[in-house]
């Protein structure tokens, strides 16, 4: 067992002591996910490999809360990423690289501090028919700057406020990440927000994210992204629609579009989409992707999955490949267990 697992078990053992945490609860949870992946997008030739976390990132987490009275609760989450294929820690070797935060929750909402997801990534995840997993992941084309570097999914040094769902079915989140630079409070900082509306079969989400001094091929000026998405449940099929626009300085602007579907049916679920991105700066870096996915649920906690994508790149674009202009086919098969 790695250091993260030993530390989590030690915390659980402490929580089990009589009187250690009055009126408190702790829960150990996780996701194990691994599978096979094929891609013909490499300059050295096709690659078949065993990969970790194709549909969902493997993790081992501990979350808990303590009742403080009058509806107020103290909450925390510690979540370690794990690379199943070699047993190393994810997120660059961080101990709790996926999430690590503490805060308070009450009738007024929730406020948390630490390493957390950005509101715009959570918005992507709520709209994407692939739930930001497998080769059909929305962030393959959405939320990218001119260097085709994906927007950060998490923020360090962050404080996040999330409102409760109102009687009008609206909810919101606001986030700010401190850059931690002496003499300039805005340097390397990030900020974001999301607004959500849910009314029966219709979900609509708007999100915004901003990164100061974001590194890219253009410059280090402020990077901004606007996202608007919707899911409409039409009974036997759910329709997914999304639009994303990113800008940086005067020299870069991109716009991305998605049209997708989900067909749930008992133990089976079929889903797919078409995504397209226009990158407006020197050179044509436009890309499109067709993707299809399938889940078969063996139980409430375990499923088999398959996904295939076909990406078309313009002459200067290189999504899913190290060869500009190459069209790429990717196929993935795997197993996921959630506990």
What does this 3D model show about the protein?
The chain has 339 residues and is mainly beta. It has a single domain (3-338), classed as Porin, CATH 2.40.160. 6% of the residues lie in helices and 53% in strands.
Specify the structural class.
mainly beta
Domain module count: 1
> Could you describe the largest sheet, including whether it forms a barrel?
16 strands, antiparallel, barrel
What is the number of E strands?
Answer: 17
- For this structure, the quaternary state is single chain
Low-confidence stretches: 16-21
Using only CA atoms, what is the Rg?
A: 21 Å
- Overall geometric form: globular
> Helix content range of the residues, please?
under 10%
Number of distinct helices: 2
Strand line-up in the sheet with most strands: 1-3-4-5-6-7-8-9-10-11-12-13-14-15-16-17
CATH homologous superfamily title: Porin
Question: The CATH topology, please?
Answer: Porin
What descriptive keywords fit this protein?
single chain; 339 residues; mainly beta; Porin; 16-stranded antiparallel barrel; 2 helices; 6% helix; 53% strand; globular
Quick structural summary:
Helix content is 6%, strand content 53%. It has two helices and 17 strands.
Spell out the blueprint of helices and strands.
Blueprint: H1 3-15, E1 24-39, E2 47-52, E3 59-69, E4 72-81, E5 99-106, E6 109-117, H2 119-127, E7 154-162, E8 170-177, E9 190-199, E10 202-211, E11 223-233, E12 238-248, E13 252-265, E14 268-280, E15 287-297, E16 302-313, E17 328-338
Antiparallel strand pairs: 1-2, 1-3, 1-17, 3-4, 4-5, 5-6, 6-7, 7-8, 8-9, 9-10, 10-11, 11-12, 12-13, 13-14, 14-15, 15-16, 16-17
